[in-house]
């Protein structure tokens, strides 16, 4: 009797977000969009989705920490302005786009609101 080979691949939250969004090309970092005085501070702070299962903390030093309920590892890295939003880049180099729409951040199908 042959034993079927079971191939199990485990993805972290950042990997899944990148796959779901189709990835972000490296060219979005080639020419960062200038941020006017006061605009960077507009996104700094802690953001949650409505049921508080997704948390994103954006620092004034262009670093971020993110947490998704049910995931063991928090995402950490840096962020930069890109187009009409931001791009998060974690420690492994994976990138996640974030749209800034007024007082709401939209990321991977989640709407995040300032705490």
Automatic annotation (TrEMBL):
InterPro entries: Atu4866-like_sf, Uncharacterised_Atu4866. Keywords: Signal. Residues 1-30 form the signal peptide. Gene3D superfamilies: Uncharacterised protein Atu4866, PF11512. This is Uncharacterized protein. It comes from Actinoplanes nipponensis.
């Amino acid at each position: 009797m042959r034993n079927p080979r079971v191939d199990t691949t485990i993805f972290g939250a950042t990997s899944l977000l990148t796959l779901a969004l189709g990835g972000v090309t490296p060219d979005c970092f080639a020419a960062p969009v200038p941020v006017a005085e006061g605009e960077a501070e507009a996104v700094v702070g802690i953001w949650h989705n409505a049921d508080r299962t997704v948390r994103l903390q954006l620092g004034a030093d262009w670093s971020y920490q993110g947490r998704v309920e049910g995931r063991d590892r928090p995402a950490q890295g840096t962020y930069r302005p890109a187009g009409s939003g931001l791009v998060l880049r974690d420690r492994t180099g994976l990138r996640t786009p974030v749209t800034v729409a007024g007082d709401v951040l939209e990321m991977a199908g989640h709407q995040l609101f300032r705490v």
